[in-house]
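Hello again, I could really use a second opinion on something today. I've been staring at a protein lately and its backbone has me curious. You're getting the sequence in one-letter code plus the fold written as tokens. I'd be grateful if you could look everything over and explain what you see. No rush at all, and the record is pasted right below:
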Amino acid sequence: MKIKNQGVYPALTDHGAKAEAARQAFAATGLLDTTRIHLPEQARSIQHDIKLLLWHQGISQITEHYRGQPDATQAYTTLGEEFSWRIADGLRTYPLIVPAAVPTAAARGIAEWCWRRESVVEDWHHKVTDLTMARTNIAATRAVLPHVHPEGVDWAAVRIALTHPGRRLGDGSTPAGHFGEGWPAILDSIHAQIDLWQTADDLLGPQTVLRLLSVHGSRTESIGEWWGSGWYETLTRHVIADAARHGTLPALVADTFTDAEQFADTAAQHPDVLDDHLLSWLNQRIFEEQSNRRHASGVHVTAFTLLDWAVEQLDELLNACRSAASTPPPHPVPAAS
């Protein structure tokens, strides 16, 4: 049975259509996600220095302003070595991630940390299929999104959103129903991770935490390409349009949607409502597209390449800083007799 347009996908006004077209264009150019920087070959020698500069400006200065002191070592020690190591994954990611407050990216970071990776949900993965796990990831991200703001994270609301017994997946089922006897342990671990981040919020400040989570939610090897990112939407629309051009869309699409565009809208915004066959097809096509792009250029995410003149100026500034640091201080002037 086809999904009719009336009442489900209301026709956009001209103004609405233009706004939606602009939003999709922003998504495709990376403007809805954290900024990523690709370095030309001549800048690879200063990659580490650029990372430190980005961290200092985007994280350390914000933390210092909140704490009123420059050294946050004790705060990170309190949060634990594992916390610091996991957070540093964002620094090890390439193309470089600019630490900035991007609420949608931070929401993915919370979903990844508090639900998918640092909880014990993986210990109970055997209870569900990969597709069901994908649906739980989407549901967790969607549950968190309304509670991440430019001012910071509403952790009390996030806690309720992720642990509410009535929280449902796109197909109407509940995580508790899927994980059965494992659900109480999963809940305990979610509470523990939210406790950790609330402590981080107190020690480092809401803006630092928002930036740390934005970086964490942008890592390409993890959740940076999950549902909720502009990059996921762009890839989704691309693979569906490409399949439509080549006549390789699954037959079920024609039985369910009015056209490929409606399928793309649904897949981009609500992939968790697709049946197993369509969701599996979509996941495989996105994986293949990512692999092809990585093989072709080595970079498969939207990133801005640092311009040559910017590299030259940065190199000069860094060399000047190194020279100043290595120059011994002048001898003190003797006091007047």
